[in-house]
Amino acid sequence: MATANEKLINSAKQLAAQTAVRDHYPKSPPNYIGVGSGSTIVHVVDSIAKLDSSLTATTKFIPTGFQSKQLLLSHNLQILDIDLLPAGESISVAFDGADEVDSQLNCIKGGGACLFQEKIVAVQAQKFVVVADFRKVSTTLCTPTTWPSGIPVEVVPSSYPYVTAKLTKLGATNVVLRPGGKAKAGPCVTDNGNFLLDAVFPTLLEGEDIVQDLAAAIKGIVGVVEHGLFYGGSKGWQGRPEIAYFGMEDGSVNMLGKEGWVALSKA
Ligand SMILES: O=C[C@H](O)[C@H](O)[C@H](O)COP(=O)(O)O
User: Fold this and answer.
1) Where is the signal peptide (predicted)?
2) Ligand 1 atom nearest residue 152's Cα
3) What domains can be seen in the chain, in order of their start residue?
C-alpha cells in the first residue's frame, strides 16, 4: 500500500501533468507529439487521453522508449518511432519528466535509463515541456540532497572501464555501473543495448558555462553515446526545456520559465 508521502508525490505529479497538458497541448490537432519516460509521464498520457478525441485521433505520438510506447498503445494512441519522423517535420510539443531541474532550466534526466531517446525527441520538438514534482526543484545541478545519483551516462558496453576512468579525471567523485536490479543479473541494459554509468560530480556551481562545459567534456569521451544533461546557453542548445511544471506539496503547481518562477493557484 502506498504511504502518505508516496500519495503526496503521486498527486503532485498528476497535478503538474494535468496543468502542463492543459497549457501546452495544441488547441488544433497536432501532427506529432513527443512523449517521454518515467512515472510522471504516465499522468501526462492519462491527461492527453482525456482530451477531446478530435485533438488526438490524427496525431502521431512519438515515444522515447519501450515504457512510453506501451503506455501510448494502452491508451489506443497512434505511435510513430522517432526515426520515421519525416525529414523537415518537427514535433509540436514534447512532454517529459526530469530528475533534477536547476534555476536556469537545465536538467538531469536518465534516472529511468531512457535519456538518449528522450534527447533525440526533445531536440526535434518546437517546444519541450518538463513535468515533475517538488523533489526535483534545485538551484544547481548535482545537489546531493536533490539528486544524489549523479549524471547518467549511456556508454557502449565495451567502453565502460575507459569512460569510468575519464569521468573520474573530469572530476567525478564516484562512478557506478548501473545494476540491472533484482530481476536482472548484471548491469542495466538500455533500450539501445548499452550500459549506463551514474557519475556523481560535486554540485555544479551557478553559471551558464559550467553545465555546458561539463556536458561537452562528457560527450567528448570515446564510448559515450549520450548523457543526461539537458542544457542550453550561449554554446548551444541540447534539450533544455522551455518551461517546467512542478506539482508542489501544498497542492499548487509552480512553473519555471525563462522569466523565472510563476506560482499557479491551488487546484
Ligand atoms: O530515464 C528516465 C527519464 O529521464 C525520466 O523522465 C526521469 O527519470 C524522471 O522520472 P520520474 O517521472 O519517474 O521521476
Assistant:
1) none
2) 1
3) 4-138+237-264 (3.40.50.1360), 151-227 (3.30.70.260)
